[in-house]
Design a protein that fits this description.
alpha+beta; Rossmann fold; Dna Ligase, domain 1; 306 residues; 8 helices; single chain; five-stranded antiparallel beta sheet
Length: 306
């Protein structure tokens, strides 16, 4: 039986669904925290040590979470993902894709370089420059969104609506990340989450928020909608721009009817989406990983030498 390592510190519902999906395909899986993994570069030994896989590295790795920590700790976690890929162990999504997406500045840059519509963005270090940008946007009738460079589930996001909001304006660990606020089409607050696997949109939902921050973790309601090519093709192109195996792509429609990419998630949740789409997303993910990376012979498991 093949074996899969699922990197996560909180398996929860998503981990359970993945474990069941891999089991149906004939693979056992183990939950492992990246905090417990290490590099051991002694001659003749497996260079990457993964708990429960000390004797033989897994056939593949599914990344369900990368822990936070100091810069050095996060770099080590990503080093482990990079090392596994260099050892021909499929990593889904790989370290490079995760780096691109968790760094909002790089995500915005890559979307811009790909020519995809995304809100106007500024990333800067100097406070005086940040205040100048905010002042200019407000005077021209535009709100701004300020976000931490690293973060998820709406944490740390604030909206700058008036000049007095500039008094509390502070950098997130020394960096200011601004996006022009997008007023969504229609009444209320809504956006779209598209789930993309292997360059195909497999599910979509509309999220209706209680405020301008549309996030299921913040209480947004999920609504089923039909796959709309205008939205799904944009989501697929966004996932391609960041070279992802799979992604949760957030898209908003502005008052002029234009769709814009506002977020690309490399470790997306899908419980809310699955509740309205009635598709087993875990099964689709497991099948894609196994069929594209293991059955095709991409795996190169390395046995430990003691």
């Amino acid at each position: 039986m093949g074996r899969i390592a699922i990197f996560t510190d909180d398996p929860g519902w998503h981990g359970k669904m993945l474990k069941l999906a891999f089991a149906k395909l004939g693979f056992s899986s183990e939950f492992v925290s990246l905090t417990e993994c290490k590099l051991n570069l002694q001659q003749g030994l497996t260079p990457v040590i993964i708990p429960s896989f000390e004797q033989t590295l897994p056939d593949a790795v599914f990344v369900r979470g990368v822990p936070g920590g100091s810069l050095e700790e996060v770099v080590l976690y990503l080093d482990i993902l990079h090392a596994l890929k260099l050892l021909d162990i499929p990593v889904y999504n790989d370290g490079r894709a995760i780096e691109r997406s968790v760094d909002k500045a790089m995500t915005s840059f890559l979307l811009h370089q790909a020519g995809l519509p995304t809100p106007l963005t500024w990333v800067l270090r100097n406070r005086a420059d940040a205040i100048q940008v905010a002042d200019h946007e407000l005077k021209n009738g535009h709100y701004l969104i300020t976000k931490p460079l690293f973060g998820s589930q709406g944490e740390g996001i604030r909206r700058i609506e008036k000049m007095t909001d500039l008094f509390w304006l502070a950098a997130s660990n020394g960096v200011y990340y601004f996006q022009r606020f997008v007023h969504c089409a229609g009444d209320g607050f809504s956006d779209y989450r598209v789930f993309v696997i292997d360059d195909q949109a497999v599910a979509i939902m509309r999220r209706r928020g209680k405020s301008w921050l549309n996030n299921v973790a913040r209480g947004a309601a999920c609504e089923a909608i039909d796959l709309d090519p205008a939205i799904t093709e944009l989501a697929v192109q966004a996932a391609k721009a960041l070279a992802m195996d799979y992604a949760g792509v957030d898209i908003i429609q502005d008052k002029a009817g234009v769709y814009l990419v506002i977020e690309v998630n490399s470790i997306p949740a899908w419980k809310g989406l699955e509740s309205v789409s009635h598709i087993s997303i875990a099964s689709l993910l497991a099948e894609d990983l196994v069929n594209r990376y293991i059955k095709c012979g991409a795996s190169g498991a390395i046995a430990a030498v003691s």
